[in-house]
Amino acid sequence: xxxxxxxxxxxxxxxxxxxxxxxxxxxxxxxxxxxxxxxxxxxxxxxxxxxxxxxxxxxxxxxxxxxxxxxxxxxxxxxxxxxxxxxxxxxxxxxxxxxxxxxxxxxxxxxxxxxxxxxxxxxxxxxxxxxxxxxxxxxxxxxxxxxxxxxxxxxxxxxxxxxxxxxxxxxxxxxxxxxxxxxxxxxxxxxxxxxxxxxxxxxxxxxxxxxxxxxxxxxxxxxxxxxxxxxxxxxxxxxxxxxxxxxxxxxxxxxxxxxxxxxxxxxxxxxxxxxxxxxxxxxxxxxxxxxxxxxxxxxxxxxxxxxxxxxxxxxxxxxxxxxxxxxxxxxxxxxxxxxxxxxxxxxxxxxxxxxxxxxxxxxxxxxxxxxxxxxxxxxxxxxxxxxxxxxxxxxxxxxxxxxxxxxxxxxxxxxxxxxxxxxxxxxxxxxxxxxxxxxxxxxxxxxxxxxxxxxxxxxxxxxxxxxxxxxxxxxxxxxx
Length: 480
Fold this sequence. Notes:
Layout: H1 2-5, H2 14-27, H3 43-57, H4 66-76, H5 84-107, H6 134-147, E1 152-154, H7 164-171, H8 177-192, H9 205-218, H10 229-244, H11 255-268, H12 275-303, E2 307-309, H13 332-340, H14 350-354, H15 357-371, E3 379-382, E4 385-386, E5 393-400, E6 403-410, E7 434-436, E8 446-448, E9 454-455, E10 461-463, H16 464-467, E11 473-478
Parallel strand pairs: 1-2
Antiparallel strand pairs: 3-5, 4-7, 5-6, 6-11, 7-10, 8-9, 8-11
């Protein structure tokens, strides 16, 4: 307002009009913040300001669109020299505000209301964004290697909405959505129908939809609920209801609604009502598919452009819920024992994937390879895949000096594990799927870092089925 008072063209805006303009302008941001300084906006930031201004101007709360243009001029540094210092101070404060506003409005409110597929409701995520597949991934990774080869690659932090392996497991729900919807209808009727103990006191269907997904993500791989799962789920659901701010909130909690939430969760997890057995049977293929894809994610994080950031505790399965659940103490001694007792040959059996030691071993072996190469300077080369079920797989090569590493991964589906007792990935339809190898690598000798087996290159191609014999991911190393 002080800056506006200095100009005859802007002094009539008034504090109320400027306050509304600031509110509308900030609330229409689709990014956390701009990075404006005394040099003026970059091309990207200029486009952001222009887009936000157009949105804010059509708001019914803005009586004079010129007030929005005035804000843009301040943020862009288009003010007289005498007002530069005040404009820069305003810009600093504004940029300190939009980030927390975005986080509170989207991550801590909307992401607890829009529960279509909660795996997408992640920090910095865009639930409406649908990935078209490997081609976009390769483009993004090539750009990342060029612009930010030392940027951290994080799949879990203290602030993520759920554990990295829980999130990946829930992604697979999109491949069995019809079966899942039928199951939810069955579970809801069992737990909240007239004949159930919860009955009319059961929470709304939106809360139930959230609960079933969250439970599927947090369910332990050892097929039995952990001793504290009941309490963890109660605390999560109460926090989710407060964050959503529809029936309860942190500033005005509703004890009655939260009691209904807690009672519903406790009743659902009581083995006596039959829900748990039905639920376990339904999600067993989901658990296996999620574990398989998590192994791909673990290895991918090590070898993709960037520096792998491994959040403490995620060396084994990370099925945590939102904080404070993801900040529980980590049993480092247990992890150290697993590493110390790890056999020379990789174990891919029921026990190894159930307890997460398979994930730890793949991570350990992958980091050992990375230690031998400077991946911040390595090339990134997408490899074309053809035939079979190539749309569910990807491959790329990383080269540094005389060393080449080829990473091959595949996306699992719960349908791959329906009726399958073990964890073997060899039942997936990879026969006929091939990877085209660059001409200068056709005579190289490739060995799978995990299994130690030789994977041949025939006619300048690698058979995916040969590489993914027992795991959904392979790292082929060549020294010459």
